[in-house]
Fold this sequence. Notes:
The complex is a heterodimer.
Chain A: H1 7-40, H2 44-67, H3 69-77, E1 80-82, H4 88-101, E2 107-111, E3 118-121, E4 129-133, H5 134-139, H6 142-157, H7 160-186, H8 200-240, H9 243-255, H10 284-287, H11 295-305
Helix pairs in contact in A: 1-7, 1-8, 2-7, 4-6, 6-8, 6-9, 7-8, 8-11, 9-11
Chain B: H1 3-60, H2 65-80, H3 84-105, H4 109-113, H5 115-150, H6 154-160, H7 173-178
Amino acid sequence: MATVKTAWDQVSNNTFKTWLIMFLFSVFVVGVVYILGRGWGLGESGGLGLVGMALIIAGIMNFVSYFWSDKIVLAISGAKLIDQKSNKELYRLVENLCIAAGLPSPKIYILEDSAPNAFATGRDKDHAAICFTTGILEKLNKQELEGVAGHELSHIGNRDTLLMSVVSVLVGTIALLSDWFLRAMWFGGRERDREDRNNGIFLVLALVSAILAPIVATLIQLAISRRREFLADASGVLLTRYPQGLENALLKISRDKEPLEAANRGTAHLYIINPLKGSDSVGWFANLFNTHPPIEQRIKALQEMEGKV
Amino acid sequence: MSPLLIIGAILVFGLLWIIFAYNSLITLRNRVREAWSQIDVQLKRRSSLIPNLVETVKGYAKHEKSVFESVTKARSALMGAKTLSAKAAANDALSGALKSLFAVAEAYPNLKASDNFKELQEELSDTETKVAASRQFYNTNVLDLNNSLESFPTNLIGANFGFQKEEFFKASEEDKKDIQVKF
């Protein structure tokens, strides 16, 4: 990390790490599927059929949340759409950052909540929405708000909804397969007739991975989510060219101890800062389970960019 | 596998790579052009606000003729500018002229209080931000294109198909001298 300095370096570094994790994740998925298949004692065709089925189920479940991501999240949170006339300043701020990012202006929403936070959603740049709480609009000054908007617009520009949906499909597939495997083991059944095909080692391996793989998959998913936060911070700075703005915003938001009522575990990863306050432990183990990197690390990365953009 | 087949495979692969690299350079170049037209849109938007502003200020401060003249001149210089750096310089000159216009406005409380003037002032400062933002986007795209044109091996394609590096949007010193606005 010592060589990571400018915002451009951080963008390429985090993009590279995302793809590295994605590659390892794919290897992991293939490995788990192979072990489960061997442990199950299924032939090639039967195994592939099950994997296909798991992929399709996980795919359909995630496609819904991907395709209507903007509508679902906004309906759950109860945010209100604003237009240019009702909130000129905010509208212009977002519009001007969009020009710098080369993105079409997203729909802008305001959420009635005094906890300062913001999020972006939508399946692509033409269906994107960005949402601010009334708290964040009151508590941050213009530069800080620009920092936050730059971060959120970068999520849109980097197509994070798509990436996280793909990751989610893979996690879902692993979870389904592990679940089916454990049920099949529990209820005995067909695989007993195929005793000749599975050897003991693979059965044990498969049992262990069926229990551990869903957890590991979730941890990888969270690691990718944290990587994308670092990336959005860095690309956001390339838009505003002012790391201090986002830095101060992050400090202000993290010091504010008010929890966001509209957020829950399902939507927490969307926000600029984890909205479920009180879980800010900084231990590396606790960090493994967080959707966002610790504030200190994000601020340190932002400080490295100061004066270099 | 016969050597002929291997050579054939390498040729096909090389050809595919050339097509891919060429197309990506075309995309980058078109993005630069599109970004350039976006700057133009914002610059036009800026120039179109000027006559209205001058008229409004004139209504309150008739005697400040020299300021009006310099703003109008700077505006027509911007509209007449053709090259990239000339436009950048003319835009900077217009900013300077507008600064003196707003300095003059300070002396007229009635003007400062008028809604029309306030709105124009707001609109202008927003347009300036938009010009800056579109410049930034243009420069980002120029950076991407130039990076590709200088990196190996895409630089081979660039050199053979006559791609040229683009310049960043910033005013050069000579162009600044050409456009003189007296305050």
